[in-house]
Amino acid sequence: MISCIHAVTTSFFPRWDPELLFKILNNIHDVVLVVDSDTTIVFANEAYAKILGVPVAKVLGRRLDKIEPKAKTIEVLRTGESSYCRQSYLSSLSVNVVGSTFPLYNGKNIIGCVSIFKNINDVVELNRELNQTKGVADYLKEQLEQEEQLPNSFEEYIGRNSRLKETLKLAAKVAKTDSTVLILGESGVGKEVLARVVHKSSTRKNRPMIKVNCAAIPEDLIESELFGYEDGAFTGAKKGGKLGKFELAHRGTIFLDEIGDMSLTMQAKLLRTLQEKEFERIGGTKAIKVDIRVIAATNRNLEQMIEQGAFRSDLYYRLNIVPLMLIPLRERRDDILELAKVFLKQFAKEVGHELTLSPQVERILRAYEWPGNIRELKNVLEHASIVCSSKVITSKHLPAHIIPKKHRSSVKENSYDIKEIVASVEKEVILSALNACNNNRTDALKALGISRKSFYNKLHQYGIIDV
Ligand SMILES: Nc1ncnc2c1ncn2[C@@H]1O[C@H](COP(=O)(O)OP(=O)(O)OP(=O)(O)O)[C@@H](O)[C@H]1O
User: Fold this and answer.
1) Is the separation of the CB atoms in 154 and 176 below 8 Å?
2) Distance, CA 194 to ligand 1 centroid (Å)?
3) What is each CA distance from 119 to 51, 73, 87, 415, in whole angstroms?
4) For the chain, how many helices (H) and strands (E)?
5) Which positions are tagged coiled coil (predicted)?
6) Residue 378 CB less than 6 A away from ligand 1
7) Is 2-123 assigned to CATH 3.30.450.20?
8) SS3 for 85?
């Protein structure tokens, strides 16, 4: 093989022409440096001069052991063994390099040494920035988790109720696989919290779980949110383009929340991506491959939506591989006080003193219907923790609407705060509109006759949704 290459080369170079050799070496982007046996530089190419910032003529004849006493070259000359270094720092050049150094022999005698290396300062800097960004992201994630006190594993998940336990058992099983999961249940039952626990119990736990709220993103933006876009893809696009949520979730999990609120057009695009595991950015032509685990959630009845032609059956079958049904809080009343304890511990830290519930409040919390489920329980306790200045929360610290009518007058008999009364009525009307519309937010806002923006503001204000 070597003799064959030799023959081809010598037919092109009948006589070794040093000029031609120098030309080749000087056009290489990597540094080529040759020293003799006492480390005197006998050849350096233009790439070396470029890093050093002086003409080649100025370095020829100088001794490398004086310029860079720790250079690998010196060791190679001493040992006679080639060396490949993954990364080292050359202080004389102020550069990080990777490369190789090998000895030159004349018979048995070492007559010099050749070093070929590459400047990787940009890579080192990028790596540093990447590590720093990752560190900041991990720190922020930790902070958020500590603040919210959410369960991080199935062991930490509160659930005495036997029906819930069955769901959690199945969830723990499926978490270990890469299967698609569909979480169903009313608003506020903790679908997102369960999705997080499934992700954290999976092999992908060290990669991110990226959430897409399909209901909150306007129809014309959802495609760019999911798939991202290339530089200049449309007017107003960010310079340099933008990564979509699918790319951010690569090797992790994508959580498609409120999947029932996605338009039919987007459902078709999503289905294609899930089937082919690849997509194109808006304005792009290259197919991007992703390795993602999908968890979807909805409070809508997807089967009914299929019958009405509002949800694609093929997408439903693709998502409904392992359905997990979270029951409403009113059907697991045995968990109410335990959940309340977790929230009180969290709010106690915020208000700076211990918080407990009076026996009457415990009875009220257990008896209430909780249309807004765990989210509503949390919001009620947050309200109480702010209003209550002592350690014990009594019924007078609770919002009026959760107290049974028969007790109500005694609690709020002196309340003429019109804003509080209007807010309480408004919340009740919104909750019953949602109930009447089978949790379809678009139908509910139409029935209420208010704009989407104002509707979502109110859902947020009254703690009906988080976003
Ligand atoms: N198991 C739990 N432990 C502690 N807190 C919980 C738990 N489940 C839910 N929560 C609290 O309830 C709130 C609502 O939960 P989550 O957002 O997961 O509900 P959801 O079912 O996804 O609601 P939506 O349908 O409106 O998106 C969370 O912010 C969290 O604070």
Assistant:
1) no
2) 8
3) 8, 17, 10, 74
4) 20, 16
5) 123-150
6) yes
7) yes
8) strand
* Cα 179 to Cα 173: distance, rounded to the nearest angstrom: 10
pLDDT of residue 421 exceeding 80, the answer is no
For the 331-461 domain, the top CATH level (class) is mainly alpha
Q: Which CATH architecture has domain 149-327?
A: 3-Layer(aba) Sandwich (3.40)
The reply to whether ligand 1 has any atom less than 6 angstroms from the CB of 188 is yes
Mean pLDDT of the 249-259 span: 93
0.95 cut: is pTM over it? Answer: no
Q: To test the ligand 1 pocket, which listed residue (299, 344, 374, 376) has its Cβ within 8 A of the most ligand atoms?
A: 374
Tokens of 196: 């997080």
Pocket test for ligand 1, best of 183, 193, 341, 441 (most atoms within 8 A of CB): 193
ipTM entry: 0.98
Closest ligand 1 atom number to CA of residue 194: 18
| Residues 442/448, Cβ–Cβ less than 8 Å | no
DSSP category for residue 400: G
Domain ranges of the chain: 2-123, 149-327, 331-461
- Residue listed under structure tokens 């350096």: 44
Look at residues 307, 297, 292 and name the one whose alpha carbon lies nearest to residue 262.
297
Q: Which of 464, 177, 194 is nearest to 327 (CA)?
A: 194
Q: Is 300 in the pocket of ligand 1 (CB under 6 A)?
A: no
Could you tell which of 192, 257, 302, 440 is best to mutate to test the pocket of ligand 1, judged by most ligand atoms within 8 Å of the CB? 192
Cα separation of 168 and 154, whole Å?
7
